[in-house]
Specification:
single chain; alpha+beta; Rossmann fold; 7-stranded antiparallel β-sheet
Length: about 650
């Protein structure tokens, strides 16, 4: 895992800018750095060191910070050049199946000088071109320059596990690439401005990373499964730099109705075992995150299974507890740890530390975030850092693949009703009654899925739910018209499979991966996500809905696959928490003064974006001691972000 920087510009730019861009992400790569570039297209790319940063001006530049995971020698330093000399690359990520790819290439006579997956990528690209991307099993974002063809390729992995941002200069005659948005602060013409639509989507609906736009106007992210290509030869002629974007990977959603639960569970179990096998490949110690839920517990137990079969040493796990006993999952963690070769570490998140580190955390994340749970996740990765563990496996993606959130029960029932399967629907309702699921809440959620738009808006207004945005948000100031953004991105899915797709592609997984990447890399720790092995994802998307959610039970096939591996009580567990923050305990009960003062600050920094009603509503929530409303956290975090990055509002 690493940090990358690159640019192509019609006007030469000082290498001092490149060094500032890479220094901004030194946390992503503390083990090495490297630079390469050229002034003119008739020249060859040449590497250079820090001592030259004040004397060179480049029209094409590549910069890299290295976190060494595979082949820890200097042979893995980047930018790296291909054996032919035609290709140069800066790469962030891991190709887990690179030994198999390397063996195939070696049979064709290809020789290698290192044990790195970076060198494997270059060899694959020389043999197969962009088509090699379909052979990669991993997480990756990289920029390749082909100096023979004078073409730049910027690539992001299938599901966007690794980030890649780009920013065009004011005149359109330059384009810059980076692993994190903060790197663009090094640019001479950087003047951060708010992207109004992104801000609305977040403040009104809690959505982010659902498209290619970011909170910074003019900064875009390459979407998952995309490749951006620039003909540098034509771009150097003058004028604007033109690029084309190709979708190299599309997730299919065809159902496979003929598979039985027994066969599906067995196949899923085998896929998980193999995904974990690949993701344990490293030349450093590999640990795991353990929350106490089914997903992370499955990973921890499958790792333990491999260790016991190999008579190896135990694994290290990293977990967070909670001050609020309703959110504390330590008893579930203890079930997993009991009788296994696991050395656990725990952290208890405290309000005072959040208050002290909030600004730093926002800077780490680049953009505001929707929950204080991001702070908890950061602490878990800090445990790994303190323990000397460079790689951890985590359970991101399972909820989106298998229907793990509670609202999937309502979606499943809505799907049955929309298809006229009344007998199944009645059976599902009876199962919900037996298991204590709130039918009132269920039917309220079903209204969101099934009602036509006009009736749906009235229904939401009747329930006093948001239909275009909170009353304290000034849409005129933002310059946007209110709309139901989630419904535009699959939020009104009428089947579990449709909702799976919407969450993977737009509404849930992209932001979770954003937070995971920043939190792990801030501590120079590589987070790996076994559930996002593309073979496993594609298998899950072919499963019929009833194998995922039915009988008032979420993630049925995953539970069945893990039945003989996890403790039985955990397999039967129905609540869902994760690394949750004690937001009600901190902001409503213990420190409402801090919370309300931050709301005041957001109102002031918003410069008319928030009305005084924001403070009044937050005060009523605190006064009544009711459950914490995440909309107020989003407003608070947004104000802190404006301050942190000195963002101007149009």
């Amino acid at each position: 895992m690493c940090g990358i920087a690159a640019w192509l510009s019609n006007e030469p730019i000082s290498t001092a800018v490149l060094q500032r861009m890479t220094n901004a992400v030194a946390h992503r790569g503390p083990d090495g750095e490297g630079y390469a570039g050229m002034f003119g297209l008739d020249e060859c790319v040449e590497p250079f060191g820090n001592e030259q940063e004040k004397t060179q001006f480049l029209r094409l530049a590549l910069g890299h910070r290295r976190l060494s995971i595979v082949d820890l020698s200097d042979a893995g330093l980047q930018p790296m050049r291909s054996a032919s000399g035609d290709l140069w690359i800066v790469f962030n990520g891991e190709i887990y199946n690179h030994p198999e790819l390397r063996a195939e290439l070696e049979r064709d006579g290809v020789c290698f000088d290192s044990g790195t997956d970076t060198e494997t990528i270059l060899a694959c690209w020389e043999k197969w071109g962009p088509a090699c991307l379909n052979r990669f099993n991993g997480m990756f974002a990289f920029v390749i320059y082909d100096q023979r063809l004078k073409v730049i390729h910027a690539v992001r992995d299938r599901f966007g596990i690794k980030p890649l941002y780009f920013y065009r200069g004011k005149e359109g005659n330059s384009i810059f690439f980076a692993s994190e948005i903060k790197q663009f602060e090094a640019l001479p013409d950087w003047n951060p401005k708010l992207d109004s639509q992104t801000a609305y989507d977040f403040l009104a609906w809690g959505m982010q990373d659902h498209g290619t736009s970011t909170f910074f106007k003019g900064v875009s992210q390459l979407a998952p499964g995309e490749r951006l290509e620039i003909d540098a030869g034509k771009s150097f002629v003058g004028g604007k730099i033109l690029s084309t974007i190709t979708k190299w990977y599309r997730l299919e959603t065809v159902a496979r109705s003929e598979i039985s639960m027994e066969e599906a569970a067995a196949t899923l179990r085998d896929l998980m075992r193999d995904s974990i096998r690949l993701r344990l490949r490293a030349d450093v110690e590999v640990g795991s995150c353990l929350s106490g839920g089914i997903d992370s517990s499955a990973i921890v137990c499958l790792i333990d299974e491999r260790i016991q079969k190999a008579s190896g040493s135990g694994q290290r796990s990293f977990s967070a507890r909670a001050e609020d006993p309703r959110l504390d999952e330590s008893r579930w963690m203890e079930m997993v740890l009991k009788g296994r070769q696991i050395d656990p570490s725990f952290v208890m998140p405290q309000f005072d530390l959040l208050a002290d580190e909030l600004s730093d955390l926002i800077y780490t994340q680049d953009e505001p975030f929707g929950s204080a749970s991001i702070f908890v996740q950061s602490l878990v990765f800090s445990l790994a850092k303190k323990g000397g563990v460079k790689v951890v496996l985590d359970g991101q993606g399972a909820d989106e693949l298998f229907g793990g959130y509670t609202f999937y029960r309502s979606c499943a029932l809505a799907g049955m009703l929309s298809k006229g399967h009344l007998t199944e629907a009645i059976g599902e309702i009876m199962a919900m009654r037996r298991t204590g699921v709130s039918l009132t809440r269920t039917f309220m959620e079903i209204g969101d899925y099934l009602l036509p738009d006009a009736l749906r808006q009235r229904f939401r207004m009747f329930l006093k739910k948001n239909h275009i945005g909170p009353s304290w948000l000034n849409l005129d100031k933002l310059g946007v018209s209110g709309s139901n953004v989630p419904s535009q991105y699959g939020g009104r899915a009428r089947s579990v499979g449709e909702l799976n797709y919407a969450q993977i592609a737009f509404t849930s997984l992209p932001k979770l991966l954003h937070w995971e990447d920043r939190n792990s890399m801030a501590w120079s720790v590589e987070g790996r996500v076994p559930f996002l092995d593309y073979r496993l994802v594609e298998f899950a998307m072919r499963l019929p809905d009833e194998l995922k959610v039915s009988q008032a039970t979420t993630k049925r096939v995953l539970r069945e696959a893990m039945r003989d591996i996890l403790p039985s009580q955990l397999v039967a567990r129905r609540d869902k928490i994760g690394f949750a923050a004690s937001e009600h305990e901190w902001f409503v009960r213990k420190r409402p003064d801090w919370f309300l003062s931050k709301i005041d600050k957001s109102v002031e920094l918003g410069a008319g974006l928030f009305s005084s009603e924001l403070k009044a509503e937050a005060e009523r929530m605190v006064k009544h001691g009711s459950g914490f409303d995440s909309r107020y956290w989003r407003a608070l975090c947004f104000g802190e972000w404006l301050d942190c990055f000195s963002v101007s509002i149009p």
